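User: Show me a protein chain along with its predicted structure.
Assistant: Here is one chain, sequence first, then structure tokens.
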Amino acid sequence: MLPASARLRSSRDFTAVVRGGLRCGRHTMVVHLSQVPVDPSPHDSLSVAPSSGVPSSNVPSSAVRSSVVSGDQGTAMRAGFVVPRSVGGAVVRNRVKRRLRELVRARTAMLAGRDVVVRALPSSAAADFVALGRDLDSALSRLGCPVNVHHG
């Protein structure tokens, strides 16, 4: 398991990247990229609202979220994935999430020091690994990240 500081864990982290970063949509996904990492949240993904004392989790139960970190970079990247129920059943959503996680992991050098959220679209269920990689590279290059991954 990755340490809390190395992944997007809370809905506040996801929201900061989605609302405050750059966005690029492709056929199978929407990529949100923050140029400056968000401050790591010191508390769990279920936070307590200071005024009411009631847990306030904006994480939809229909989404599968996961994270990746660069193991060899001095400046860690943080990544999160949103794969909603509209993509398919649990097996399909988990397959898409694993593919996206591996694609982002292969690109950790170009994403060092940045936060990224990849939101899968329903068409990602039918896409193969190479098509997802092409869409991710296209989105990242459009957002200003140099892409140097070979497709095979």
